UniProtKB/TrEMBL annotation:
Glycans are attached at residues 14, 201. It comes from Daphnia sinensis. CDD domains: M2_ACE. This is Angiotensin-converting enzyme. Its EC number is 3.4.-.-. The active site is at 248 (proton acceptor 1), 248 (proton acceptor 2), 377 (proton donor 2), 377 (proton donor 1). Binds 1 zinc ion per subunit. GO terms for molecular function: carboxypeptidase activity; metal ion binding; metallopeptidase activity; peptidyl-dipeptidase activity. SUPFAM superfamilies: Metalloproteases ('zincins'), catalytic domain (SSF55486). Gene3D superfamilies: 1.10.1370.30. Zn(2+) 2 binds at residues 247, 251, 275. GO terms for cellular component: plasma membrane.
């Protein structure tokens, strides 16, 4: 599956030149999807990728799920989704994530309505319905996961100085190596560890130019010898990749901090913690205060500039919450055998329409398509609830580190660069690794044991107020209309579910070992730890 994903090329006759051209996901298709304005190009790329990759992966993925379910049941879990959820050491994970999302959903819907208006103004009423879901191929990447590439049409005050330092990075002749050195210096300024010398020799920081086919998805690697830590990334000299550099270095920092622990405990408190650390540091690095300090911006203290910054942050954060949620709540249902095999893809898009408010741009074939597989994390067997949880963790961590750094004023202006007090507080949590329950790690840093939505909501409160006023001014409908769900024949559904459970290797009567709350730290297919971000 990984090989199909990493080597597939979408080919066409170029509509301008007539010359045949083939495109990998990285960089060609990714760059095409990041451009705003060419509807037909986006449509071609989306359909070519999802048909070309998803249709090849469907039979392989269904067989893979069958095997993983059998393995999970042999290890005492109800199914593979149950095994994933128990990494969070609670039997209430499904309730917890829904409770968290209910609190942030109003903010997401305001952002959704605002972006829909901007897409309507860009592509026209025949392409975008002001009361409907968003077309999945117009959101700035192949999956509609991150909306940051829509910033050019969504920025609230375009006449104000830009908070995107990409042009200045080019003007100052930034290189990929300098981006990583700058990121490394951010961590060391807080008294945290520098990357080892071997990092620079053994990592793959740029896409090879010798013709090799490589997986470009940004990943950080721990080789479990306490000294070999690497990043694999096809870095480009743009601000989005500069943020990713800081994120991936967060994984490396976590690895180095808990490297002294016994092997079983060399991991994050949970997967969400690992993701939150890097995203937290990327967020602090991205503030106008910090970018001004390192000479990549020169913007005044201006409420309208602040709103531009907050909207950009929301496109990178708030837009992802329902996406990550449905990627895994849907898979949990699939692992349980709740969805008839004949209806998997239709059911997936029905759930996306209901929760995320997006729809596929073209008809899908329920017998051939399984579009969820056409993203790195699914075909490489990674849960995505880690990214949902990390978003809440990062804002909780941010509040505490800002206090440690002595910050006063709005949280979106906080930068803990050069604060060793913030670094010491963070290091104390990182050193625990997986040696204690995640609630203990949370308490070590924040002083309390619960995951909260309020820090995130506090951070974005000025943006929420602005979005609400803007949507009212434009007369925009907040929410979306979707057709009634006609996917399931209710009389036939129980039979289909039973047959699906059999095909997925499940014994329907098996119960989850909730009393044990098992947490298997050693993977049955032990391999170097791999943590992922973006794309």
């Amino acid at each position: 599956m990984a090989n199909i994903y990493g080597t597939y090329q979408a080919c066409r006759s170029n509509p301008m030149t007539g010359v045949n051209e083939c495109m990998y996901l990285e960089p060609e298709l990714t760059e095409l999807m990041a451009q705003v304005g060419n509807y037909e190009d986006h449509l071609w790329a989306w359909e070519a990728w999802h048909n070309g990759v998803g249709r090849q992966l469907r039979p392989l993925y269904l067989r893979y799920v069958e095997l993983k379910n059998k393995e999970a049941q042999l290890n005492g879990y109800a199914d593979y989704g149950d095994q994933w959820r128990q990494k969070y050491e609670t039997t209430e994970m499904e309730t917890i994530v829904q409770d968290l999302y209910v609190q942030v959903e109003p903010l997401y819907k305001q952002l959704h309505a605002y972006i829909r208006r901007k897409l309507y103004e860009t592509y026209g009423p025949d392409k975008v319905d002001l009361r409907g879901p968003l077309p999945a191929h117009l959101l700035g990447d192949m999956w509609g996961r991150f909306w940051v590439n829509l910033n050019s049409i969504a920025i609230p005050y375009p006449e104000k100085p830009s908070t995107d330092p990409s042009p200045e990075m080019i003007r100052q002749n930034y290189t990929v190596e300098r981006m990583f050195q700058t990121g490394n210096q951010f961590y060391t300024s807080m008294g945290l560890y520098p990357v080892p010398d071997t990092f620079w020799n053994l990592s793959m920081l740029e896409k090879p130019t010798d013709g090799r086919e490589v997986a470009c998805h940004a990943t950080a690697w721990d080789f479990y010898d306490g000294k070999d830590f690497r990043i694999r990334m096809c870095t480009k000299v743009i601000f989005e990749d500069f943020q990713t550099v800081h994120h991936e270095l967060g994984h490396i920092q976590y690895y180095m901090q808990y490297a002294f622990q016994p092997l079983n405990y060399r991991d994050g408190a949970n997967d969400g913690f690992h993701e939150a650390v890097g995203e937290l540091m990327a967020m602090s690095f991205s503030t106008t205060k910090h970018l001004n300090a390192i000479g990549l911006l020169n913007v005044p203290d201006d409420p309208e500039v602040d709103m531009n910054f907050l909207l950009f942050q929301a496109l990178n954060t708030i837009s992802t919450l329902p996406f990550h949620l449905t990627q895994d709540t849907w898979r949990w249902s699939m692992f349980r055998g709740d969805i008839p095999l004949e209806q998997l893809n239709d059911n997936y898009w029905a759930e996306k329409a209901r929760v995320v408010g997006v729809a596929p741009p073209v008809g899908r074939d329920p017998a051939l398509d399984l579009d969820i597989t056409a993203i790195y994390h699914v075909c490489n067997d990674f849960d995505m609830i880690r990214y949902f949880m990390r978003t809440f963790y990062q804002y909780q961590f941010n509040e505490v580190l800002c206090q440690a750094a002595g910050h006063t004023g709005p949280l979106y202006k906080c930068d803990f660069y050069n604060s060793t007090a913030a670094g010491d507080a963070l290091a104390e949590m990182l050193k625990l690794g997986a040696s204690r329950p995640w609630q203990d790690a949370m308490e070590a840093l924040t002083g309390q044991r619960d995951i909260l939505a309020t820090p995130l909501l506090n951070y974005f409160e000025p943006l929420r107020v602005w979005l609400e006023a803007e949507n009212i001014k434009n007369g925009d409908y907040v929410g979306w209309d979707i057709p009634p769900n006609k996917l399931v024949n209710k009389e036939f559904a129980p039979y289909l579910k039973e047959k699906t459970q059999q095909k997925l290797g499940l014994s329907p009567a098996r119960k989850s070992p909730s009393s044990k709350l098992r947490k298997n730290r050693m993977s049955s297919d032990f391999r170097p730890a791999l943590h992922n971000v973006r794309l």
